[in-house]
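Budget justification, computational time. The allocation requested in the original proposal was used primarily to generate structure tokens for proteins on the priority list. As evidence of use, we reproduce two of the resulting records. The first is shown immediately below.
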Amino acid sequence: MSKVNANDSNTFAGLRVAAFEARMAGPLAGLIRKQGGQPVEAPALREVPLGGNPVIDDFTDRLLAGGFDVVVFETGVGVRYLAGAIESRISRDAWLAALAGVQVVARGPKPASALRELKVRIDLQVPEPNTWRETLAVLDAHLPVEGKRVVVQEYGQPSVELMDGLQQRGAIVTSLPVYRWALPEDLGPVRRAIAEICDGAIGAVLFTSAQQVVHVLQVAADDGREADLRSALASRAVVGSIGPTTSECLRAHGLPVDVEPEHPKMGPLVAAVAAGWRGVGKAAESRPSE
């Protein structure tokens, strides 16, 4: 394996970079390569649609009956899973006609893109970094929710802060779970990546969601290497976080955040870590020998 090239100061220059992204693992690996890194793909989660979900059936019935005022879509994959589940019962035209009668909020570009694929009107789009804080702020500024019936499409787990914030503002809130997060069926790649991080063979790690943090620590603990992993992330491997929510999770679990990009997207994350890993002062020796 190639060593880091000290003369290439604005790229990974051969550094081995672990990425825990699943759905976009290939594109993320490509971005790492473009920045001169050696990607180590280690998907740390999978999205499992909630089949036969009575909550979705109830949402559909109430939507058709005019039972909601605002729908907040949290994720693009959630929009697509929801559409698929609804359209197993009724036509797309029927439920989209009902959706046209409510205010539609998209938490950032991914749900917005999925909604546009369906030709859904978007009334509000939450600005970066697209957290529950920005969601509440944009609603306060443009669509006060007091007394309104608000549905929140979950993103793998309940958004407790958002739900609490809406209820505190007087909204009548309904949670809409569409899918759940689970560990990958094949844990081999993430286990190998954890072992290599612990052994100093990986110089940087990229977390692109908070749930990846939880799962990586869970797998490390199951393998008896949690303490080793924590030590390596604290002292040897540069930790890149895609944005505030993931950074909050890392810090809540006692892990460092060495680099966070200005914009919470994969491209800016890779570019920021590639440009800044040397300045962190951790990864210079964290690479395998040739």
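The second record produced under the same allocation is shown here.
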Amino acid sequence: MASIDGFAYAVFGWAGEALSKLFPWLRGDIVSADMRAYPAAYASRVVLFTLIAFAASFAVAAPVSFLLARVGVLGSLQAAAAAVLLPFAAAGAVFGLGIAYPKLKVSSRAANFDLETAYFSVYVTVMATGGISPYTSFERLAKAPVILFREVKKEAMRFFLRVRAMGEDPLTAIEELAKRVPHGGFKQLLLGYAATLRAGGDVVHYLQRQTEVMLRERVTQVRMAGERIAMLLEAYMAVILLTSMTIYVMYVVNAALSQAGMGLAGGEFQFVMFSYIVMPMLSGLFIY
């Protein structure tokens, strides 16, 4: 990916610089998303992928549109419009997804931090109660397996490098790490620890109180998630079961009436469409 960024920045660096100025939040999102990319180089990559998508979609859309026009499925005007509009639509979709990708990744990291922060706070509090400082616990976490804390481990490794390799003050390193984390709870935990230690307060008491608050919030989130899932299941049962029963009854009645010459045409097609296309799409929507 670094070579692609280098090529894209060499060719479209002017466009990348312009986009990074046009979207000033892109720099902060790239940092918070832990994407090792220069903002202008990433924007240049987006421009490169957008042009590739435009060329590929035009190479596919133009022949297919004119072939459908020759067969008679589309009119000549419709074929020309499809050949022109589809490449622009594909390029616009790729460009929008590329610009929004850092923000989506920030949201994903925040969700992962939301899962890990409460248990990380428990770990640090237990270690601090036993006489091991959070600074040492953070360093040990950098050497722990990835399966324990995926996102927190990344920040712990970054903290370890800043302190051990760059000789930075541990409290300053913690404060700098907290600024780039896209989760309010984790950021508050680190900044509060640094402020408490600088003020000479009781660090163990602070960690215990923060852990208690985080665990209560976690219990509330789990309870709300359970209630939300119950509501979704009720809606799923109402939409899928009742609608499928209604469609099936209508199909059976239409089949019976068709034998008497009073049925409606297209009942089989509607039943197949609902059973094999609409229902799987609705199920996927509820699962998502």
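A brief technical remark on that second record: The chain has a mean pLDDT of 80.
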